[in-house]
Every structure is written in C-alpha cells, then in structure tokens.
Amino acid sequence: MASNLSRILDSVDPFIGTEPADLPAAQGLAATWWWPKAQVGNTHPGACHPLGMVSACACSGAYPTGYGRYGISTEGVPAPVYDDYLASGFTHFQQSGTGAIRKYYNYFRVTPMIEPLDILGTRWKLRDEIAEPGYYAATLENGIRCELTVGEKTAVHRYTFPEASSARVVLDFSYGGLAIEHGTTVPLRAGLESLGQGCAQGTVVMEGIPLSVYIDSDTPKAWRQLVWYDRRRVDGGTRLDFDYIRRTTLRPFGLMFMGPARAGTTVELRMGFSMRGTDQARRNLEQSLPGDFEHGFERVRAQTHEAWNGYFSQVEVDGGTPERRTVFATSLYHSLIKPCFAEDESPFWPSKGPFVFDIATMWDMYKTQFPLLTALDPAKGAAMAESLVRIAEEEGNLPIGYRMARGSDRFFRQASALAHTVLADGYQLGLEGLEWDWALVHMQDDLRRGYGEDFAVRGIVHPVSHTLDLASGYWCTAIIARGLGDHRLADELETKARLWINAFGQDGLLRDSSFYEGGRWNYSFRLLHDMASRIELAGGDKEFTAILDRFFGYGAEPVTQLGVPPFGPEFAIGQDLNRFEGLNNEPDMEAPWAYHYAGRPDRTAEIVHAALAYQFGTGRGGLPGNDDSGALSSWYVWASLGLFPVAGQNLFLVNAPAFGAANLRFGGNDFELVTTGHAESGIGADAAGSKPQYVQSARFNGKPLDHGFITGNQLHGGGRLEIELGPEPSDWATKTRPPSASDRPESARGGGARLQEFLP
Fold first, then answer.
1. Fewer CB atoms inside 10 Å of the end CB: C or N, the chain?
2. Are 659 and 317 in contact (CB under 8 A)?
C-alpha cells in the first residue's frame, strides 16, 4: 500500500480553488445545471498542518481568506480588486473555502522589508510562488524570499534578504481581518513585551478571544530588537499595553527586528500560539521544537510533511490520468485542513480536553467531511464529538457554526440539530471516550432550542428545511436512547421524527417557505431516515424518479451561467429553472444518491460521473464553488471512491468508482476496493467526454452484494469490495433498497430492508 504514497502526496496542488472556476466546457447533463453562488473555491495556498490550529499565508486582504485578488462575491463570477497577486505581509489563521461568515482572521502580520517603516502596509507583488502541504514560499518584488511552515500550534517564517543597509522583519500585532468594507478586526485589548535575545511575547483580544504568541528569532548579531507604535520606533521601550482600543483610537503597533543585511542573509522567526496565555504559547513552541529552537524551520516542515503523509498513506488509488490524480489528491488535502483541533486550548472554559473550532460551515461539513475525518482518524472523530458535547455543556447549545470567536454565528440560521447526526454516527461506530448518557441529555435539550420549540409544539417550523433537520435530529437522538436501553424515550423521539412528513406538499416537494441559499427544489431531495415513506408521498418510484429527472435536467437544454455582477434578467431566469446547482452549492449535494432509494442507481452513476468530469479540474480555477471548509472536496473524494455517507444513519451508498482500485485504511482497518470490467474507460482514465460506467454486480468479502450500500461498521471494519462495471445499466441494486425507518411492504417497487440485517 505504501508504494505510491509519495507520488500521491506530491500531486497536491494547494492553488486549486484560489481563482474563479475555469473548468472543462460542460456537456450533457452537466450543461443543464445552473450555478447561483460564487463561482470560486475561496481556498488559499498557505501552509497548513492537517486539522491544525494554525495556518500561515501571504496576505493581500482579499476576500475571504486574505489571500488572492478578489473582493466579496456571493453570486456569479467574482470581480478582481487587484491586478496581480500581492502581499502586505504574511498572516496567521485563515478560513478555507468559506463564503460570507461575518468576520475573518489574518492575525499577527509579519512583513519583511528593506524599506522604511513608514510604508508598512504596502502591497508588494508576489513572484515564484510555491505551495505544498505544510509549506508556502514566494518572492516579494523587493527581492526578499519568504518561506512559511506551520506545526499544530506553531508557525515558522524564514526570510532571505538581498543586500540592504537597513533590513527589518516587522510584526504587526494590531492587524486583523480583510481589506473590505466592515472587514477589519480591531483588538479590544493588547499587550506585548520585548524580552531581549531575540524573544518576545504578547496577547491581543480579537472578537472576544485572548490570542497569545511567543516569539523566538534567529537574527544576525548586529540586528536590534524594539517595539514600535504608529509606524514610529519606541527607542528604549520594551513594552506596549493597551487597556481599551476603539476603531477611532487604533494605531498600528508591534515588534521589529532590524539591521544590515548581506545578500543571502536569512532570518528565522519561530512563533508559538495559544488561547490560554503566553506561557502556554511558549510551551507549545517548545513541544514542537524540543531541546532547542535551532534549525526550527526545517524541523517543523519535516514534522508537518510527515503528519500529512500519515493521512495520505491511508488512501491510495490506482489508475486515472495525472490530472485526475491531482484533483483527487488536492481534494483529500482540502478535506483535512478544517476543523481546527486545539487540545487544551479553549478560552471559554478552564478545564483541559478536546477543543475544536472552525466548524464554520457545519451545514455542509456534516454530510461529507465529518464522515471522512472519522473514517481516517477515529480518535479525532471521537475528540470532535466530545468537543461538541463540551460546547453544549459549557455554553448552552450544540453548535451549528463555531469559530475562534464569540458571536451569534455559533448557533446560526442555516440549519438545526446537525450535531445530532455527528453524534449518532459516532455512537453507531462505537467511538470511544464519550459519556453517551451525558451526550443524550444535551441532544434532548438542544432539540427544544431555537426553531425546535415551535417544532415541538406545532410539528412544523419555517424555514421548512428546519423541519427536516429537527425530525432527523429526533431520529438520531432516538438511536442513542435505544442503544442505551431507554426504549420509552426512544419511542417518544421516533414519534417526533416522523413529523418530517409535515414539510412536504401534495406535489412531492417541500412546501413553499423561505430557504437559505436555495429553493424548495434544492432542499426536497435530502436523504431522510425514512426515504421509503418519502417516495410513497411522491407517488412511488416512477413518480419520484420523474421529479428527480426534471430536477437534474434530463432532456433539458443547456443553460447559461451567471457572469460578473451586476446581473440582468439571467439571475431570475436561472432561479426559475429549479435545477440542480451542481457542486456550486451544497444544499442538494446528496441528491444524486436519492435515486438509489427508488431503484435507479444507474441515474446516480450518470449524475456523479457528469459532476466529476465537468465540475472539478486542475489549476487555480479547478473548483465550481466555495469549498466550504472541505465539504466540497470531501464530496469529490467519496464520489471518486464510489461511496457516499448518509449522515446519521451509519450507511454508505455504493456507486461506480472513478478509479480502477483503491486501498483504504478506514477505522484503523484495511479496506480494499477493486473494479473490473470497463473501469479503464471510465472517468479515472479520461475525464471530460468519457461515458459513465454502471455497476453490473458487486461482492463484499467474497459474498454477493445485491443491494447498493454497506454499513459504516462494515467500511470501518475492513474488507474487500469488488465491483464489476459495464457500459450499460443493469438490474443491480434495483430490488433491495437502502434501509428506511419504516418497513416497506413487498411490492413492485422492491422490498425494504432494516439496517440491522446488514450489520456484521
């Protein structure tokens, strides 16, 4: 399994998704899908540790990560605000692939200069950019070569100067946010101290968070170390303290190392971060560089490369073009940047233990990214689940969004009860370390908060998509209650879980309501816990399939995508299509697999094939929409493997894989995926223009697999899944459907199945 590991890791291109979508000209089904949201991945190429607390990247102030050339965009093609790639320095803490989530990071800007301090904030052009997992480098137009690497809670900068009589490395403690309207972040309180001998420390309170840094530097002996305020040196000063800062009173302040430089002079800056004070920030740096800090850059870079390799060693695929392998490898990389795990770092409660933040787009991540994370690293999955429960215990709610900040976006309006799906999956997989009795208490309490109060009383709530969320939340809570032996409570919860039916009208679609970033068509094909009854509500398999066919554009004409705002009538025309939004938006990202429940896995194969072929590519424009903290990239990983997780249901649907074979280490066990038949003519061999492949038959651990799914326990438990592919649809998985909450009678639609029948 290790033979191709280095090649897979080396295939990662962190620049994918940093520019507007530039993809193969869509054909067939993909040409009928209409994209309403911003057509850009919103990723950044900065140095990242897998699931680490710290990232570091060149900062221009552009939207939304701080890197790049573009301004705010929520729909269509984003407009550039800069003509070139620029940087005023290099900042820490970035989002990954998000859209609008109010405020942004980019703290502790570090700027190497050979110019006067007066021009701090100038944006220099970037040249010769290089990015790989854990490493970013670029040359500023003033000739300084800049390199960044990070550890879990650390960052190391290395700057190589041209000859200069007065070179300097400037740290701006006051900087934060983006160079857009209402985008700056102002520290409320701050303090920094120059400790001498290349060391300093400080804390800034940003968005309610006390973020501390400890700094150790390796500078030439002739260089000086001093603090500065309002772009002026504070000669002889070693401290700056600010008890209260307003926007109107803010003046830049920070620390500076300066002196003469010969050509090739290097300065290394090593930084430890913490949300629990400067002492812990120093300990974090010492833990990353035990013994001494010498040669810190190469040591941290090697450690982080090894950490990335640890994850990439668990996923190996065979076959496919170099381009497809690059997209796959980069998708796996983007899937493992967020959320941020920061053990013992919570600034909100005093006790030690798991702390996870930057669950910024949970309404997308819970479908694809969380199941991938838990498969690759069950211990991290357990820590994340425990952290969610701790948030509820300490702060009163299970979160919907959760960043390194105080604010209302923790418990937001996009969705309800999503943590319940994560916890239900974790319980069914047997994740260790959680007090499930206590988790159940918080899950119950949370179901009555926010929109849940109206749902509990009326059985329906608007936005109506929250009715589906809450019904699923009750179902997931019932799973844990029954598993813990409280059958009376489980029965009560399951009764509430059936109220999903109130969200639907007579036409087999959701009722008219308001919807977050989408319409009732986009939200109507969620993979509910009772898909059998949901299909009956639409009139049966044939009628449900007909509605899906219309949604996915079968028989429809190609559409025209949005351009650069402002738009004309094309936006309203596009909305009126009520069409699949492709992978540009995530509310309907699981909809292609709804066909499995109607006995049409061939349709799933066609749609997934079209998405893989035409909505992902290489180069900076290789994503069709916001990566949303890795949710979109995780979709690509699962789809390429021919699998799809059904959140909260311990279920993985099986489809035609995009590669000839895959060796996976999921749940700590080896899982082998092998395709035969016409696999080499599928998307793994050639993307755009290739034809979809269909599953003809399947075997799991040597036994026929006649149904189109396996359980999460089977995937995590290891085994061998053999899939025979062919160029035409077959009757595979058309009789036994994926399990639903209700028993389905035997009929022409095929027999239902309970999940317990398929557990090992």
1. C
2. yes
